[in-house]
Design a protein that fits this description.
CATH class of one domain: Mainly Alpha
Number of strands: 4
Strand content: under 5%
Structural class: mainly alpha
Helix content: 40-55%
CATH topology of one domain: Serine Threonine Protein Phosphatase 5, Tetratricopeptide repeat
Order of helices and strands: HEEHEEHHHHHHHHHHH
CATH architecture of one domain: Alpha Horseshoe
Radius of gyration: 25 Å
Shape: globular
Length: 312
Amino acid sequence: MPTNTQDMSNTSENINISTCANCGKGEEADINLKSCNACMMVKYCSRDCQIAHRPQHKNECKKKAKELHDEKLFKQPPPREDCPICMIRLPTLATGSVYMDCCGKIICRGCAHAFQSRATKKEHGFCPFCRTPPIKSGSEETIKRFKKRMELNDSQAIHKLGCVYRDGMYGIPQDSAKALELWHRAAELGRAGSYHNIGHAYRIGYGVEINEKKAANNNELAAMAGSMESRNSLGLLEGNAGNFDRALKHFMIAVRDGALDSLEKVKHLYEIGYATKDDYAKALRSYQEYLGEIKSNQRDKAAAFKDEWKYF
């Protein structure tokens, strides 16, 4: 059986992951081995063995953990789902879509405008899915609908109700604690905007003590969940720190999701010599691909006609 001294020469290349990295006990001996949560490279039979092995493992563990983290961080998030009516990708910008607080559907602004244009005066504002009639702007009925959708774990409704408490809308008094509680709940369901708001709260001290580490962590979670605003912010932070390679990676991901600001940042990096001509050309192509994926005649008409949609 190997000793701690004998294990000192072990690396991730020669450690048998079916045995304890410290004492050598294997799974064949009915030992319940647990992986190192940070790097997932080695396993241990007990907490004591993990602590004993820490001095020789920590450097490699930190290196591998950072690699795994960056692998997740710099992965292009999946695009937003398609509009359930026209079956064209929903725009990333919130202004390009409409949330139906009656049934939880999200449709593009183009389809909302087209439906309203065809509706009779009597039907104007009715939900195209469940035919629920519109409600008065600022009505308490909005809160009732959000709460009803919350019972179904609708992350968008939970997030929006958090914003209501933040802003003090619809007769609800401002309540930072309640807003954060709701955003945390929506974030656990994968809502990128809630991670973004939590990160911002920690950055400015909204309802919590300022904590840059928690702000950065939530910003990263938001970016990985698809928030191009958070992704662009991460790029700016890396650029300000002089980490231009990492900044470029963030901007390129955001550009693919339609972030015009990030495209300008890639252009700036090219102009000052921290991005190549090919990088900028690729960014331009990515942005054009995004525009092509979300384009429709109905959406162009909606953009030209500044209508108001009761369910937005």
